[in-house]
Amino acid sequence: MAMTAGAQTAMKGIRLVLVSMADGKTEGVPVGWYLASYNPEARGGEGEARWTPDPAQALTFASAEVAVACYRAVPSSRPVRGDGRPNRPLTMFSVLLD
Q: Which of 27, 43, 55, 57 has its CA 20 to 30 A from that of 34?
């Protein structure tokens, strides 16, 4: 389920904007940047996100539901975390829908 901005940048839609780490910390975090690409399967199911300050390069989603599904995506290669909870790599960040 690798997702890239590509042709999607031309369409208007919902974007994910980085607010902080899930614990509220912002040091070293590109606050206000947009999700440009995300692959939950990368790095053995730990996920890999790329952020951009340019809204034109942001991944866009047709609806809030689709954006939230991306945010909560569970990699099939590692569906469960060590604590037994679902593995949702992107939820290490707090985001807003824009």
A: 43
